[in-house]
Amino acid sequence: MMQIYSDIQPFETIVLYPEKFPNWFKLFSEHCEVFINISDVDYELEKLTNPVLEEFIKLNTGREPIPLKYHFDSVYADSATVVSTPRSVYFLDISKSDAEKMQQDFGILIQCTEAIDDGVLRNTYYRNLTINKTCNANGKTGWQHLLDNQLPPLNAIVISDNFLFVNEDGIRGFKNILQLIQAVLPGTLNTDFNILLIAQEHKNKDVAWCNKLTGDIKTAMNNLKKPYNIIFEIVFAETIHPRLFISNYFIIKLEKGFAVFNSDDLQTVHETTDFEINRMFHRINKNEGLPEYLQAESRLVEIKSICSSVAQYISKRPKDKNYRIMGDCNADKSLKNRLINDV
After folding, report:
1. What integer pLDDT is reported at residue 322 of this predicted model?
2. What is the DSSP letter of 31?
């Protein structure tokens, strides 16, 4: 379940006005683990004297929020603490400007009582990209054009695509993935940005090719001159079948993978494919199916298991082809990516 950390005032606002905040009320009630800024002792007293808390517990058939004052104390002492919970949401009793700055600084979704966005996790966006279609408008081309809409904050991504490097000696995949990364990287951030890419290496290519590809991607990202550190990790191994881009609060799905555009013309679609961006709770009603959050969590668990198996394999047979972990990973080949380490 997603974790929501809420001060008392925004928690009571959501519970008191479900008609005004129906999406958040449903998330609080059915889909999330709610932690509130109160001590254990005070919580027991509030259960007896606070009608809002009493009503919430009654409506949720006894399921209670969890008092976790020490975590909120840590957040208010050092706002960077929120980075340790990369797939969570915070409802804090702070000003709108402070919430916006904190969200921009750390890539974590921060809501405040005076400006609660009820639809921030509910949007979905779909396009059918037909072969030879040109994606170019308002001065933005290719991936920048596709992603030219307001997205939730992010500080980490995981991209999984088995066939990213199988065509054109991997050149089309390489060029597309660079443009995609450039399109999603935030302008500013006060923490490091984590990128994990997992894909099979191009057939008949050796370790030198893998090293060069990794180095070329890192060099291209360094050349963007972002004012924050980018941790890039790449795993060369067979991965899950769905081609996915998973971030903190949204998923990108592509029917035929992320090498969308021609390598010599990065605004023209190479082959017809479906493209969609789904926020983590664009489905929250039972008749709509499984929320994207649970699907993303399941996929992250699968990818984590694959990467752990590859690391173990490498430790025993480091010279073998098709099993390589490169980039900014730890010395033991374990990963630093915070989304992977959050599941």
Report:
1. 61
2. I
C-alpha span between 341 and 118 (Å, rounded) = 28
Where a domain ends, among 115, 140, 174?
115
d(CA 161, CA 78): 37
SS3 329: coil
Whether the Cβ atoms of residue 201 and residue 239 lie closer than 8 Å to each other:
no
Residues 151, 80, single domain; the answer is: no
pTM above 0.85, yes or no: yes
Domain total in the chain: 2
Q: 187 with 74, same domain? A: no
Select from 74, 84, 91 the least CA-distant residue to 106. 84
Apex CA 314: angle with CA 310 and CA 315, to 5°? 120
Domain that holds residue 88: 2-115
End-of-domain residue from the set 96, 115, 134 = 115
Q: Which amino acid is at 210?
A: C
Cα separations in angstroms, 75 against 90, 285, 314: 10, 32, 39
- From 51-60, 182-191, 201-210, the region with the lowest mean pLDDT: 201-210
Residues 50 and 161 in one domain: no
Q: What is the pLDDT of residues 206-215, one digit of tens each?
A: 888 889 999 9
- Condensed to tens digits (0 to 9), the pLDDT of residues 19-45 reads 999 999 999 999 999 999 999 999 999
The domain that holds 335 is classified in CATH as 3.30.870.30
Q: Distance between CA atoms of 181 and 52, rounded to whole angstroms? A: 44
Looking at the structure, tell me whether residues 128 and 200 fall in a common domain.
yes
CA distance 258 to 199: 11
pLDDT recorded at residue 115: 96
Q: Which helix (H) or strand (E) holds 198?
A: strand 193-199
| Nearest Cα to Cα of residue 307 among 179, 158, 191 | 158
Tell me, what CATH number does 57's domain have? 3.40.50
For position 320, what pLDDT does the model report? 67
172 shares a domain with 274: yes
